[in-house]
Amino acid sequence: MRHPSLSLLAAAALALGAATAIAQPTGYTGPSNAPKAAAPGGYSGPSSIPLTTVKQLLDTGRDDQPARLQGRLVSFEGDERYTFEDATGRMIVEIDAEDFPAGQTVSAEQRVELVGEFDKGLRKDEFEVERVILLP
């Protein structure tokens, strides 16, 4: 004989798993090749992390180098990956949903500052974002 509360618990767990599997990020509203992301806020004061460009980072960046980039998120590529663009070029950036500003969305036209760490790999370079700041 099945216990009624176990069946209810199993159904709730199944529903939660299904909701998690199809949840889409909501922090970015521009073009997308996959779903989108949402998030809380954080520190908003000055930073000693140097402002750099995509070109500088790709040409001379070191692995695990902290940096700040200013430009636009022009496309969502899926799995927390976005294409970022500044006046010097484009690169893939990785942004967790909680790293977007709380309660705000980011469109492809919105200028942003990305604070994070450069990940220099053998086959690809990527910027791992720790915080997204909306610029005026």
From TrEMBL:
Region (Disordered): 26-47
Keywords on record: Signal
Signal sequence annotation: 1-23
Gene3D superfamilies xrefs: Bacterial OB-fold
Pfam family, one: BOF
InterPro entries: BOBF_sf, CarO-like
NCBIfam families: stress_OB_fold
Protein name listed in UniProt: Uncharacterized protein (TIGR00156 family)
Organism, as annotated: Castellaniella defragrans (Alcaligenes defragrans)
